């Protein structure tokens, strides 16, 4: 049962990675199809993460009454159908509705996926969250590749999106039968009042304790959005690369993110989450330093590669740390933490762009470098609680010892 639950959740991460990549990598085509002006495009793009934040907040309230698995089961099809809507809508109003639905559903999807991932990790008694996010990265690579095919063959957006959705949607629905909610934050046998209390957690106390992780999440996504939005421009305009070479850094970044997450769980089990986060922050900051001081395009690509290897561990471990920090209210903590995913995404690209225009793009690259380094101050928040084994090994609950050996 656990094995199926883990595999089905991994597929959900994969499908979401592919869907999101298909959307963001075809933004120029979306703009051309609907005649969205350069001035109006940022409004459309900003609306998606804002509404995703609303969806995440709503999810926190919904999971007090229904299990995260049910939210995930129905939010993922909505995301996929909204993707088709983006490609097939009639007029700018239709595009706005499709993007709004996409954003709201993505917030619920991201939050519920990570809720299930954290609860499964708690059940297994060992680190598995990085593996789920590695599959998300793989989905992103596949989605970006399919988007390139669509652009290369000048396919209409709906023609590019529909076959992918036709495959992913039924597979996700079938796989959702095996989602495992696990320990969602309330002790087994707890009464309704106790579960309500566990879900709410006490907003003031929870947010105060959660704040360091919220900052780490924000800084990580500022770094991520810097690479995704500015790496090509930086290589071409600042380091003098060709247009073709300028497209390489983000692809390399995605591949190194996949590789780093694929092996990251082993590092957490061996050295502990706090140590992995410290190393990741140092490597990512070093990568941004290399980018800022690069004499040429190839050194700049090396810097972006290091950024990917370092940043890739921060987000999954931040979700996992929230689950450890609030074992009695993990769903609420993850939903609130997930909001700062979108805060970082919203802040990162405009921040670097404004600093680049007003100052220099080399100097702008120092900003995510410093912010990622601040993560070192909060690394202790990633350490296991006192009731767990040292070295990052989580103590399995007695009832789960037998089940934990059935991992993938």
Main traits of this protein?
single chain, 408 residues, mainly alpha, MFS transporter
Characterise the protein shown here.
The chain is built from 17 helices and no strands. It is an all-alpha fold and 408 residues long.
Structural class: mainly alpha
The fraction of residues assigned to DSSP E strands is under 5%
Number of strands: 0
Terminal Cα span: 11 Å
Radius of gyration: 21 Å
Largest sheet: none
Residue runs with pLDDT of under 50 for 5 or more positions: 184-205, 387-408
Roughly what is the average pLDDT, rounded to an integer?
87
The amount of helix comes to: over 70%
Helices and strands, in order, run as HHHHHHHHHHHHHHHHH
What's the number of helices? Answer: 17
For this structure, the quaternary state is: single chain
User: Which shape, going by the Cα principal axes?
Assistant: globular
């Amino acid at each position: 049962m656990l094995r199926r639950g883990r595999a089905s959740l991994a597929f959900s991460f994969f499908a979401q990675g592919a869907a999101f990549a298909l959307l963001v990598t075809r933004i120029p085509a979306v703009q051309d199809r609907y005649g969205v002006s350069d001035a109006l495009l940022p409004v459309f793009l900003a609306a998606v993460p804002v509404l995703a934040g609303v969806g995440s907040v709503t999810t926190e309230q919904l999971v007090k009454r229904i299990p995260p698995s049910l939210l995930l089961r129905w939010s993922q099809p909505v995301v996929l159908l909204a993707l088709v809507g983006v490609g097939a809508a009639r007029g700018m109003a239709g595009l706005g509705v499709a993007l709004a639905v996409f954003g709201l559903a993505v917030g619920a999807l991201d939050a519920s996926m990570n809720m299930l991932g954290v609860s499964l990790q708690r059940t297994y008694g060992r680190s598995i969250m990085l593996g789920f996010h590695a599959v998300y990265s793989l989905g992103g690579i596949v989605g970006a590749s399919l988007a390139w095919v669509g652009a290369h063959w000048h396919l209409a957006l709906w023609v590019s999106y529909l076959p992918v959705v036709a495959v992913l949607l039924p597979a996700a629905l079938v796989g959702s039968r095996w989602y495992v909610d696990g320990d969602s934050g309330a002790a087994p046998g707890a009464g309704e009042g106790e579960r309500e209390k566990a879900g709410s957690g006490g907003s003031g106390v929870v947010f105060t304790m959660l704040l360091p992780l919220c900052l780490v999440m924000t800084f990580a996504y500022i770094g991520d959005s810097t690479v995704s939005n500015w790496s090509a421009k930086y290589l071409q305009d600042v380091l003098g690369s060709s247009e073709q070479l300028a497209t390489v850094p983000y692809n390399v970044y995605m591949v190194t993110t996949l590789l780093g997450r694929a092996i990251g769980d082993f590092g957490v089990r061996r050295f502990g989450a706090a140590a992995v986060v410290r190393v990741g922050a140092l490597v990512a900051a070093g990568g941004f330093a290399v980018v800022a001081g690069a004499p040429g395009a190839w050194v700049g690509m090396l810097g972006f590669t290091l950024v990917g290897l370092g940043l890739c561990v921060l987000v999954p471990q931040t979700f996992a740390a929230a689950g450890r920090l609030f074992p009695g209210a993990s769903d609420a903590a993850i939903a609130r933490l997930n909001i700062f995913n979108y805060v970082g995404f919203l802040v990162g690209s405009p921040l670097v762009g404004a600093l680049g225009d007003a100052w220099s793009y080399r100097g702008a690259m120092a900003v995510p470098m410093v912010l990622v380094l601040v993560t070192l101050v909060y690394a202790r928040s990633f350490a296991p609680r006192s009731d767990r084994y040292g070295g990052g090994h989580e103590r399995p609950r007695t009832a789960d010892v037998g089940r934990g050996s059935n991992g993938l």
